[in-house]
């Protein structure tokens, strides 16, 4: 098992996008207290955002088989407000959390998930997010069934070669699923590398 930062899985994309994402999180989550991150992956976002949002409890989560390396990074780069990672599979019963979740954040997950998993994601969000809470999603999206760039089109081909159930999702479908859970899109912001930041309020 990895014991040093150099031995841990590393995402260059996380390093590239963490500051632009943080700029919006500071605006949108300045009055939030307990943030659940879904699909924390390498943990690079978790440690960076917790350090720079000291007023919140940052709760990382991911599927069970990612937790060992995720928790190793959290231990090596601990902050007082950074919680222990928890196991969360969107298609299973979501874990009971120790306090009310008034914000949920997820980056680069919905295009990896199958369609059924995306639907389960929103059902779970609706079940744990308090009224007036925020849902913030980062990643690529299509608009009116069209890719926003050639690079996204190529990325989608790569996704489907690796897993036919993965795909860049249509924003209209995402908003429909959100609305079914009482979530309304407040902001849709263009981000580097043809990604978007979506901010919903319940």
- How many domain units? 1
Helix/strand/pairing class, anyone?
Answer: alpha/beta
What's the β-strand tally? 10
What is the architecture at the second tier of CATH? 3-Layer(aba) Sandwich
Q: Roughly how many Å apart are the termini?
A: 40 Å
Tally of helical runs = 6
User: In CATH terms, what is the fold-level topology?
Assistant: Rossmann fold
Shape: globular
The CATH homologous superfamily is called: Vaccinia Virus protein VP39
Proportion of residues in extended strands: 15-25%
Rg, rounded, reads: 16 Å
Q: Mind describing the biggest β-sheet?
A: 6 strands, mixed
Could you describe the 3D structure shown?
With about 200 residues, this protein is of the alpha/beta class. The protein has a single domain (about 5-200), classed as 3-Layer(aba) Sandwich (Rossmann fold). It contains six helices and ten strands; from the N terminus they run αβαββαββαββαβαββ. It has helices at about 10-30, 45-50, 65-75, 115-130, 150-160, 170-180; strands at about 35, 55-60, 60, 85, 100-105, 130-140, 140, 170, 185-190, 195-200. The strands form three sheets. It has a six-stranded mixed sheet with strand order 2-1-5-6-10-9, sandwiched between helices. The protein has a two-stranded parallel sheet with strand order 3-4. The protein has a two-stranded parallel sheet with strand order 7-8. Strand 7, helix 5 and strand 8 form a beta-alpha-beta unit. The termini are far apart. The relative contact order is 0.15. The mean pLDDT is about 95.
């Amino acid at each position: 098992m990895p014991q040093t930062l150099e031995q841990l899985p590393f995402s260059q994309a996380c390093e590239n996008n963490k500051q632009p994402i943080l700029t919006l999180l500071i605006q949108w989550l300045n009055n939030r207290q307990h943030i659940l991150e879904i699909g924390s992956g390498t943990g690079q976002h978790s440690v960076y955002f917790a350090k720079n949002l000291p007023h919140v409890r940052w709760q990382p989560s991911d599927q069970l088989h990612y937790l060992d390396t995720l928790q190793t990074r959290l231990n090596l780069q601990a902050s007082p407000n950074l919680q222990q990672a928890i196991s969360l599979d969107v298609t299973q019963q979501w874990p009971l959390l120790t306090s009310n979740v008034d914000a949920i954040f997820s980056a680069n997950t919905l295009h990896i998930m199958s369609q059924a998993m995306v639907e389960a994601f929103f059902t779970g969000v609706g079940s744990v997010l308090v009224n007036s809470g925020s849902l913030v999603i980062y990643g690529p999206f299509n608009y009116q069934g069209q890719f926003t760039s050639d690079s996204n089109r190529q990325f989608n081909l790569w996704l489907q070669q690796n897993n036919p159930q993965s795909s860049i999702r249509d924003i209209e479908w995402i908003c429909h699923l959100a609305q079914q859970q009482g979530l309304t899109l407040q902001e849709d912001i263009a981000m580097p590398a043809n990604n978007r930041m979506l901010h919903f309020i319940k």
